[in-house]
């Protein structure tokens, strides 16, 4: 039997008033029945789990990651705030023979963007800046094209900024940092299009957002995340990794698989840019993050709503991206999700807010694991 997905319930007013009085709702048979139904539903919510068949189906989907000589995957499935399935497959570190586990930390790549967005929005709530604050206001000396590009454009990928990856000379071997992205932007005087005219995914925008977090908080980006996001939520092992400044505990190293060979490919020249993809985390910490999303912690309700709301281009066209999240309808349900792809890592965090369903898949290899992987698992969870 599949998991019984039940929406949040609120006991009837007569039940609440009877409880306050310390008396049963005498004479009210309907109320008594509602009480029984409510308590049964709440008990069901607390005991939800997956069947052996469902778990076996999920394991079958993840079989390509399961082996002593294969890069790993770590998976978590949540119904409400309960983790109903959690499992790791394969190796976090092939060279040392270290197996993956729930506390194995993977580089999130673009799954990091939701944390950059949340950090910046928290500063907006503190009135340090606004969604209309422009690049020239944030960064003195920024080219004139930044006068019409604001925080809103950066958050939802409508800025038109040139991809910094295209501006890095082939001869560069030293890791590029977020500050280097700003320097590259200051050296050019053009954009792809006027802000708000198109949607075009932009790593550049999120690198600049991380620098904005530093400017308006007066803290290093990793320290701000740790103090105001990770620590309050109990995400003890998550961090924005800066080589020589902090250390990734329980680290998974990235690999590339080609034919029958596996080669470590853990870092590239862009791996040290933090705002667009430099966070490391694990499935235990990310389930705590999903609980915070379910419960509306850290940010106001209106701010969380904005992160998962579609925006309009200048011509009225709808953009299926909020602030740090992709958005789409799947099987008639609104979903919020993000993948992360970089050298040696492929990840996805996928949520159905109306049912409080979440799937997290983290891997340390160069292929697989897109949103369809999460959707296949959700189909198993939702099957009747």
What CATH first level of the largest domain would be assigned? Alpha Beta
Q: What's the order of the H and E elements?
A: HHHEEEEEHHHHHHEEEEHHEEEEEEH
Number of strands: 15
- Percent of residues in helices comes to 25-40%
What is the global morphology? globular
Number of helices: 12
Largest sheet: 6 strands, antiparallel
Low-confidence stretches: 1-26, 37-46
Q: What is the CA-CA span between the terminal residues?
A: 7 Å
CATH superfamily of the largest domain: DD-peptidase/beta-lactamase superfamily
**Strand content range:** 15-25%
The assigned CATH architecture of the largest domain is 3-Layer(aba) Sandwich
Overall tally of domains: 2
Mean pLDDT: 90
Structural class: alpha+beta
Radius of gyration: 23 Å
In the CATH hierarchy, the third-tier topology of the largest domain is known as Beta-lactamase
Question: Would you mind describing this structure in some detail?
Answer:
The structure is a single chain. The protein is α+β, with helices and mostly antiparallel strands and 384 residues long. The chain contains twelve helices and 15 strands. It has helices at 13-21, 29-47, 52-61, 113-125, 135-138, 151-155, 178-186, 203-217, 221-230, 283-295, 301-307, 371-382; strands at residues 73-79, 82-89, 91-93, 98-99, 106-107, 239-240, 255-258, 261-264, 279-281, 311-312, 318-319, 326-330, 333-342, 345-352, 357-363. Strands 2-1-15-14-13-12 form a six-stranded antiparallel β-sheet, sandwiched between helices. Strands 5-9-6 form a three-stranded antiparallel β-sheet. Strand 14 (345-352) and strand 15 (357-363) form a beta hairpin. The longest helix is centred in the first third of the chain and has 19 residues, at 29-47. The radius of gyration is 23 Å and the shape is globular. 40% of the residues are buried.
């Amino acid at each position: 039997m599949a998991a019984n997905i039940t929406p949040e319930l609120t006991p009837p007013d007569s039940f609440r008033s009877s409880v306050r009085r310390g008396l049963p709702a005498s004479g009210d048979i309907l109320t008594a029945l509602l009480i029984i139904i409510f308590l049964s539903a709440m008990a069901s919510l607390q005991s939800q789990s997956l069947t052996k068949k469902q778990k076996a189906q999920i394991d079958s989907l993840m079989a390509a990651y399961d082996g002593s000589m294969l890069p790993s995957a770590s998976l978590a499935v949540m119904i409400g705030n309960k983790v109903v399935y959690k499992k790791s497959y394969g190796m976090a570190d092939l060279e040392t023979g270290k197996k993956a586990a729930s506390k194995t930390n993977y580089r999130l790549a673009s799954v990091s963007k939701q944390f950059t967005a949340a950090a910046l929005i928290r500063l907006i709530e503190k009135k340090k800046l606004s969604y209309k604050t422009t690049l020239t206001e944030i960064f003195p000396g920024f080219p004139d094209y930044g006068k019409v590009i604001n925080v809103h454009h950066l958050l939802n990928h409508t800025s038109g900024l040139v991809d910094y990856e295209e501006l890095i000379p082939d001869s560069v071997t030293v890791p590029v940092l977020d500050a280097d992205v700003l320097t590259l932007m200051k050296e050019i005087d053009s954009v792809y299009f006027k802000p708000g005219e198109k949607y075009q995914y932009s790593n550049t925008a999120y690198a600049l957002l991380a620098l904005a977090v530093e400017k308006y908080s007066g803290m290093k980006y990793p320290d701000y995340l740790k103090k105001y996001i990770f620590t309050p939520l109990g995400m003890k092992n998550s961090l924005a990794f800066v080589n020589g400044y902090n250390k990734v505990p329980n680290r998974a190293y990235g690999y590339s698989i080609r034919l029958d060979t596996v080669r470590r490919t853990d870092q590239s020249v862009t791996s040290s840019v933090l705002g667009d993809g430099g966070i490391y985390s694990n499935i235990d910490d990310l389930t705590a993050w999903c609980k915070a999303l379910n419960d509306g912690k850290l940010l106001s309700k209106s701010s969380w709503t904005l992160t998962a709301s579609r925006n309009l281009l200048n011509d009225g066209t709808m953009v299926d991206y909020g602030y740090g999240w992709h958005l789409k309808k799947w099987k008639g349900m609104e979903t919020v999700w993000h993948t992360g792809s970089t050298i040696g890592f492929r990840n996805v965090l996928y949520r159905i807010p109306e049912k409080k369903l979440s799937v997290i898949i983290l891997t340390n290899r160069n292929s697989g694991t897109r949103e369809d992987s999460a959707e296949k698992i959700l189909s198993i969870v939702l099957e009747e």
